[in-house]
Amino acid sequence: MGKHAVVVGINYKGSGNGELKGCTNDAETMTRILLEKGYNVATLSDGHSKWYKPTYEIIMLALEDLISNKKAGDNLVFYFSGHGTQENDGGRDERDGLDECIVSSDWRAISDNTLRDTFERVPDGVSCTAIMDCCHSGTLFDGQHRLIHGDKNLDRSSSSARLRPEVSAPLKKPATTNTRFIPLSQVEEQYNKLHGHRDTMARSADTCVARSMALPQRRKGRRADTTLLLSACEEGEKCLDVAPHDGTAPFGLFTKALEVAYRQRRSARYDELVWEVRRMLRVAGFSQNPCLEGTRAMASVAFLQ
């Protein structure tokens, strides 16, 4: 059984009001956890020279490598911390008329359709998990089964266990917060500044890069959910980037809460951790609603088993 992961953290340094603070730290956090769990990890980040910069093409090549030559019993993880955005889907398949996207370090949009199509190519029996700490992440893989979603203030299945002070303290510190959302118009503006000309790839480079890559052939028709998605918020919500006032390292609120929940309950299942993260954010007074999408069988196994 192989265990493989791609971790992406993007702060968009030097982009003015598009810059984030905690995403590269999130990538380090998740890399540590995945290594603890025995994964082979490829980390992409714009905050450390030792890692490849997460441009559109490098992210897509890393995902191609992640899904290629895998067999039943393998476990794959894709983690992303950075900006999320939305674009018009042209009336194709979204109930709200919008495609959710993540944004690469070179300001190109990677749509939910591209992510779904990529992971639908994995062979049967391969376990795929995506953890997305960005705005509008709730349906980034267009799954057919939404297991945990909606207003967390109405949750009844959350654990009643008390959080240990030493692990929950980071969520309670005074801090400056910013959302991990950027309008598509600003993505295009940043792209034009970086590349010096207007190009349709600023809106969505999906087809341009896909044509140049030898990705496995997509299966005809939609498969049942192939990827378990842990998302920072609902598809129509924004999530928070947090910079504590005491000078400690900035972080994504969802990633930090997930780390806290995992450190407290290392053998917990995916669904148990998401319930716990929602409870933690509710108690701490944060508005974003983390979600879980996939089948019950996927959600009922231990986190990063």
UniProtKB/TrEMBL annotation:
Occurrences of domain Peptidase C14 caspase (ranges): 3-294
GO cellular component: cytoplasm
A GO biological-process term: proteolysis
Entry's Gene Ontology molecular function annotations: cysteine-type endopeptidase activity
Family per similarity comment: Belongs to the peptidase C14B family.
PANTHER family cross-referenced by the UniProt entry: METACASPASE-1 (PTHR48104:SF30), METACASPASE-4 (PTHR48104)
Protein name stated in the entry: Metacaspase-9
